[in-house]
Amino acid sequence: MAGPKATAPVKGTSSSTSSSSSPSAVQTLWKAYLDHTAPRLKFIDSFLTFLVLSGVLQFVYCVLVTSFPFNAFLSGFASTVGQFVLTASLRSQVNSENRTLFKDVSPERAFADFVIGSVVLHFFVFNFLG
Amino acid sequence: MLRSFGALCLSLLGLAALTQAGSSSGNSVLVVLQPSLKRDAFSLFFDGLEKKGYSLTFRAPKDDTPVIIEHDVPLFDHIILFAPDTKSFAKDISPQALVNVLNHKTNLLIALSPKQTPLSLLAAEFSLILPPPGMPLLSHFPPRDTAPTVIPITVPADNAVLTPGTPPVWFSGVPQALGANPLLVPLLRAPPESFAADTDKDAGAEAVVDAAEKGGEGLWAGSALGVVTGFQTRDSARVVWAGGVELFGDEFAKKEIEKGVKSGNTQFALDTAAWAFQENLVLRIDKTGHHLANETTPREHYTINDLIVYDIAISKYNAAEDAWAPYSGLTDLQLDFTMLDPHVRTALVPVAGAPGIYSATFRAPDRHGVFKFVVDYKRRGWTFLHSSTTVPVIPPRHDGYPRFLSAAWPYYAGAISTSVGFLLFSALWLAGDDRETKKTKKTE
Amino acid sequence: MGPLSLLLLPLAAALAVNAGQLSIQSPRFTVLSSDGNQLRTEQISLSKKAKEPVTLGPTDSLKLTFQVKEEGGEGVQPHQTFLRFYDETTGEEGIQPVKVTASGKAKFDFNMARPPASLPPSGAAPLKVSLILGSFVHTPATVELFDLVVPPSLSAVHPDEQTFHPLPEIQHTFRPEQKVPPKAVSAVFTGIVLSPWLVLIGLWGYLQPRVPHLFSLSILPFTVSLGALEALLLWYWVELRLGQILLYGAGAAFVAAVTGKQALVSIGEHRTGRK
User: Fold this and answer.
1) Using one digit for the tens of pLDDT, what is the confidence trace for B106-139?
2) Is C8-153 CATH 2.60.40.10?
3) What Rg value do the Cα atoms of chain B yield, rounded?
4) How many domains does chain B fold into?
5) ipTM of the complex model
6) Do B193 and C83 touch, CB atoms closer than 8 A?
7) Are B182 and C160 inside 8 Å of each other by CB?
8) Residue B4 confidence (pLDDT)
9) Closest to B406 (Cβ–Cβ): which among C1, C139, C186?
């Protein structure tokens, strides 16, 4: 995911300013994403981007400076990773294009699962954070 | 009967003016005196002992009573054996029986002679090597009127057992070569010019040299020999081996070393008996304790890296007052904190203001396990002190580690920001609008 | 012992009358190397000691000759002719008897390759060598000869001997403390780790999701109880014990479940019902 590069002003209009002479695969993908994704899903994707960045930066700190309270690193990192997984599964389950896969799961049910999973994850994270 | 007479003496003397009270381990003494020696010939020594408060019981070596040990209980606190020439003793005084009473903490004072007796065979068990029978110690120095076998010996000035300033003592008897056993406490050594020989004429010089070259031990000569040697067993029972019995007798006590200078025999004999009978240089441990540095009660277990304080209270017996008094004079007391091997060894220093208490502070090693505080104090002449206290040392409990460290701030920030992000996300999601219209595209 | 000394008493007294002082004549020592070369040979002066100590190497041998005589008289064979080796610093001593002929001539030699048993264990200090002459009939004498330096040797020590003296102190070497980075570095990285918030706010700001029901009565309690749950977890991190958090958490979770059901039902209706 081209997270860090996708700063706000660049989005949206890039598809119209880039010349159609050489649309790269990434740009095509990006344009398709912007055009066809529901706003609710983009809302979730922003949160996912935030979680990835947060995890990567904690990992960078661990490698560059110190891993000393290793339990703290694991907690912090695992909180972002776990939250990412839960949010990604929420996104899959509320995506209207996946309706056929999740016939028995209503979006509300998916959100309820998401909330319960997140709270339990945070409990373990703060338990281990030290 | 003699014992009750002794008890009467004791009570009468107790009423008299200030007397030196006796030993820390009891006052009953059995004196085994061979028939050829008369009690009056040792009156100065025995009277001196009685003045100190001992009750003496006399018996000949061949008498059946009083026995020294009965049903595995010794009947006397101390035994003096002035039977240097006796070749056969009664059944209860065998070398094994003497060692047995020693193991029961009875102290012994034994006199030897150039004759070979069961006692001289027993001396070999105490790392004392005696010359062949019939070879008394003799010295041609200093030139004097008495026989060469009667030797004046200077009393060492730096021995903790003997009174400093004691005049030279007369000695006649057999020297002992000392083994390397650290339990030996030499009290008086032979003069450097003395040697053991059985010849009495100058013509015997050849025999002296031949004896030296022949025997395994060579020549018994010089100041490496002891004439009065003590031995302290591992239980701190004491034995004194004297090379001759005349050392304790009145004749030598009254003989002058030179004109106007009396011999130090009486003083020396009483000093030796005082050490042998546990009067001086006697220590004991009163109590030991341990606690964390800023607490006072001991804990059941300690955590690694804890600062632990150990203290020990030691008393010394004061014979003059017949009481134990706290003693802070030990300068090299050490504490071992060991688990199979000593991990920590520090000095126990006397605490200023608390007499008799020594303490040491140290940090528990960062290995966990069952440790012991061991104090093992062994010095020549002093009672052996030993104490061992077991204490477990455990690693920190799950909540004993340091928390909220500065190195972990980014991780705390990450975890908290995930939680806050989740809250915000949920709030916005719930509040949001989700009509089932697929085609809404927001491009701004 | 008593009778014997009594017997000697008058005898010694009688003989002491005409006893002369023992002394030695022409004492000489020679140091030989292992192949017989004479390394040093000297007359021993009785009035003053040799300035240099006699040094023996591991294969050298020492030969000592002298004659014992009565002062102003002729050679005699005394009862006791001993060489005394003495180390003043350690107190170690060794006595060696010397064979003397009837005319008083004495000779003693030894080789350091097989040292005599009487040579005491020695260290750095030189051994003082003296001669002890004793006799029943003559006045005895001690004669200082020279200082001797021999290769050092150890004395036999009992294995327990060292426990009778203070033992060396032992300090435990602890594992080195964990190195903690400077607080400034950690603070900076805390800021860096929080920087994705800028991205999130930016993205959401750009997306501008519509939130018409943010404060509606069916949604707000649930949001608040989620907030309370997270706050409870933070409190647990800082202060609470496990038992307490489980207790409080169960209560808060119950409240959240109730309000959550209400909230989700309401959302569902919005999604499906009121189109």
Assistant:
1) 999 999 999 999 999 999 999 999 998 988 998 9
2) yes
3) 35
4) 2
5) 0.82
6) no
7) yes
8) 65
9) C186
Residue B195 lies in a domain: yes
Taking only the tens place, the pLDDT of each residue in B201-233 is: 777 777 777 777 765 566 788 888 999 999 999
Residue A3 domain flag: no
Helix B409-431 and helix C220-238, axial crossing angle in degrees, nearest 10: 170
Number of domains comprising chain A: 1
Are B73 and B130 contained in the same domain? yes
Tokens standing for residue B337: 């904190």
pTM metric for this prediction: 0.78
Residue of chain C whose alpha carbon sits nearest to that of B149: C5
Instruction: Quote the minimal CA–CA distance from C264 to chain A in Å.
Output: 6
By three-state DSSP, how is residue A41 classified? helix
- Which CATH number fits the domain that encloses residue B38? 3.40.50
| Residues in chain C whose Cβ is within 8 Å of chain A | 178-181, 185-186, 189, 192-193, 195-197, 199-200, 202-207, 209, 226, 229-230, 233-234, 236-237, 242, 245, 249, 253, 256, 260, 264-265, 267-268, 271
Alpha helical stretches, state H, C109-241: 183-194, 196-207, 220-238
What pLDDT digit, counting tens, does each position of B143-188 carry?
Answer: 888 888 899 999 998 888 999 989 999 999 999 999 889 999 999 9
Cα-Cα-Cα-Cα dihedral sign, residues A104, A105, A106, A112 = positive
* Domain final position from B255, B276, B297: B276
The residues spanned by each domain of chain C are 8-153, 213-275
Asked whether residue A79 is assigned to any structural domain, the reply reads yes
B349 in contact with C at a CB cutoff of 8 Å? no
Task: Give the pLDDT confidence of B226-242 residue by residue, as tens digits.
Answer: 999 999 999 999 999 99
- Closest Cα in chain A, distance from residue C230 (Å): 8
Burial class (CB within 10 angstroms; exposed 0-12, middle 13-18, buried 19+) of B15 = exposed
- Look at residue B429 and tell me if it is in a domain: no
> Is the minimum CB–CB distance between B133 and chain C shorter than 8 Å?
no
